[in-house]
């Protein structure tokens, strides 16, 4: 996948749609990242931290019993085995190191379910950078476990009371706060969304997933599959296979399907695909997987869709819950409900012309299901009642 233009365009998407007062800060981040990314010293520092503190490289695991059930050969890239339990830590550590290099003294982050907040709090603790996390009030209530984790790691969690009190509002508030503190703070954005350079920079920090998987898998798989919220684990995975014959598939939640059923618009500093009503108002997303509860998708995914290089599909809550149970039963792995969406598409499509029997599928397991246990308990009680 390519480097975007100077202005951060991926085809007709991307860009830097921010207030005048934020332009210098975005340029500063872009300049710092460009230089750091070609600096062998920075790359080595990052690689050392990913090895020591994250546990990279993560393994790839052939899912043999699942494959036998589905009739396709599934290999899992295990981001669920990273420290803190999801791929978010790859990007958080990368940006925290960059913030240090830029001479910033603290980090700002947004979070929905709390995984990016926990990852940023962890990176902040490691690198001695105080962290402020903006989180919708409704998510603060729903995700009390992760709120405790963030605070325990020393971060300040600020509940956001505007709008729907979820991720979309937390992101807006984090950007507003950044405007007033660009001198001393770095905004550590958690997915391949936002103004340039974030979609590109976050994809580069996550490409370690795809680069490792490519090498570990050896031969090129027929399909490469990942779930898509904003799209960072998918973008990082796809980056390792973009120049191969592998078919790339991004799996969204039906209630958060920006790439599958969104329209072009501008939100949080970039032009991309968002779920909108007939007046262009951005709609609320709804998914059982908090990490997929975002109405849009990163601009590079919008572009890959238009090019036909990647395909985007959506699955519903029930299919994801069933796929999580199937992986637990066959492989002894309880996946994050986000990752279960990718598994659900494979289960649905296996043996059809969309995913012919006998195909090899490399699937990124973006996180582990520990954070979803309360949701799964509630589901199983509902189904028993
Ligand atoms: C945040 C999250 C996602 C969705 O984010 P992307 O940017 O689309 O990768 C997926 N899985 C898990 C486990 C997450 O925490």
UniProtKB/TrEMBL annotation:
Pfam families: PALP. It comes from the Bacteria. Its cofactor is pyridoxal 5'-phosphate. Residues 55-367 form the Tryptophan synthase beta chain-like PALP domain. InterPro entries: Trp_synth_b_CS, Trp_synth_beta, Trp_synth_beta/beta-like, TrpB-like_PALP, TrpB-like_PALP_sf. One of its GO terms (molecular function) is tryptophan synthase activity. The beta subunit is responsible for the synthesis of L-tryptophan from indole and L-serine. Its EC number is 4.2.1.20. GO terms for cellular component: cytoplasm. The keyword Chaperone does not apply. Keywords: Amino-acid biosynthesis, Aromatic amino acid biosynthesis, Lyase, Pyridoxal phosphate, Tryptophan biosynthesis. Belongs to the TrpB family. Tetramer of two alpha and two beta chains. CDD domains: Trp-synth_B. PANTHER family: TRYPTOPHAN SYNTHASE, TRYPTOPHAN SYNTHASE-RELATED. The modification N6-(pyridoxal phosphate)lysine is found at residue 88. This is Tryptophan synthase beta chain. The gene is trpB. PROSITE patterns: TRP_SYNTHASE_BETA (PS00168). The lineage of its organism: Bacteria, Bacillati, Actinomycetota, Actinomycetes, Pseudonocardiales. The keyword Lyase applies. It is an enzyme of class 4 (lyase).
């Amino acid at each position: 996948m390519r480097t975007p233009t100077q202005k951060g365009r991926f085809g007709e998407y991307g860009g830097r749609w921010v207030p005048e007062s934020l332009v210098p800060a975005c340029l500063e981040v872009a300049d710092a990242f460009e230089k750091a990314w070609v600096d062998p010293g920075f790359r080595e520092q990052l690689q050392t931290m990913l090895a020591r503190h994250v546990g990279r490289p993560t393994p790839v695991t052939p899912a043999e019993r699942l494959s036998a059930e589905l009739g396709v050969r599934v290999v899992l890239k295990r981001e669920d085995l990273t420290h803190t339990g999801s791929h978010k830590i790859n990007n958080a550590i990368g940006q925290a190191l960059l913030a240090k290099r830029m001479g910033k003294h603290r980090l700002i982050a947004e979070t929905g379910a709390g995984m990016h907040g926990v990852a940023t709090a962890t990176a902040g603790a490691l690198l001695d950078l105080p962290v402020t996390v903006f989180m919708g009030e409704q998510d603060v209530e729903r995700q009390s476990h992760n709120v405790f984790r963030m605070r325990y790691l020393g971060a300040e969690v600020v509940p956001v009371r505007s709008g729907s009190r979820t991720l979309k509002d937390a992101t807006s508030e984090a950007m507003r706060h950044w405007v007033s503190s660009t001198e001393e703070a770095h905004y550590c954005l958690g997915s391949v969304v936002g103004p340039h350079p974030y979609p590109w920079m976050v994809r580069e920090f996550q490409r370690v997933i795809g680069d490792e998987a490519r090498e570990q898998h050896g031969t090129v798989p027929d399909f490469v599959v990942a779930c898509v919220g904003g799209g960072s684990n998918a973008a990082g995975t796809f980056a390792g296979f973009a120049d191969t014959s592998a078919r790339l598939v991004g799996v969204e939640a039906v209630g958060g399907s920006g790439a599958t059923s969104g329209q072009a618009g501008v939100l949080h500093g970039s032009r991309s695909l968002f779920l909108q009503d007939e007046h262009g108002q951005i709609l609320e997303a709804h998914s059982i997987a908090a990490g997929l509860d975002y109405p849009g998708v990163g601009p590079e995914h919008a572009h890959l869709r238009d090019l036909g290089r990647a395909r985007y599909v959506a699955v519903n809550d029930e299919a994801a819950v069933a796929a999580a149970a199937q992986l637990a039963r066959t492989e002894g792995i309880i996946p994050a409900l986000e990752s279960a969406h990718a598994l659900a598409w494979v289960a649905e499509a296996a043996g059809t012309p969309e995913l012919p029997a006998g195909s090899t599928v490399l699937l990124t397991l973006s996180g582990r299901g520990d954070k979803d246990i309360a949701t799964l308990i509630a589901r199983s009680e509902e189904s028993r009642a």
